Amino acid sequence: MDSRFPRIAEQLLLIERELRLQGLWDDTVPSSEALASTQPFAVDTLEFEQWLQWIFLPRMKQILEQDLPLPNASGIQEMAEMVFANRAMQGRDRQLQVLLKEFDQLIIATR
Questions:
Q1: HSE value, Cβ hemisphere, 13 Å, CA-based, for 59
Q2: Number of domains within the chain
């Protein structure tokens, strides 16, 4: 098991918690077509927070549960900056961006 797994698991829980606190958690599953997007971050079919909830978090949990190799890089926080720059969230997204940046740093950290 990769030594980063416990810290990454905790980070995923914090990201989920923040999505819920901000009211960005959705109870309705997107269509299977929307989830099947091949575009990075499913930009053509999902909102960024939907991608986090329905694609990113489940995939990362699967990696941890099955002891699969972690990705070599992550640019999630950069994507979050671009997405939230175009929204009037009035700083509400700041904590989510911090959590995503911490996730990115965990991914690139030396094992």
A1: 11
A2: 1
**What own/partner pairs with CB < 8 Å and gap ≥ 24 does 106-111 have?**
106/4, 106/7, 106/8, 106/11, 107/4, 107/8, 107/70, 107/71, 107/72, 107/73, 107/74, 108/72, 108/73, 108/74, 109/4, 111/2, 111/3, 111/4
Q: What is the pTM of this model?
A: 0.91
With respect to residue 37, please indicate whether it lies within any of the assigned structural domains: no
pLDDT score, position 44: 96
Residue-range definition of the domain harbouring residue 97: 5-25+44-108
**Cα torsion angle, 25, 29, 15, 74, sign:** negative
Print burial letters for 18-44: b (CB count within 10 Å at least 16), e (below 16). Answer: bbeeeebeeeeebeeebbebeeebbee
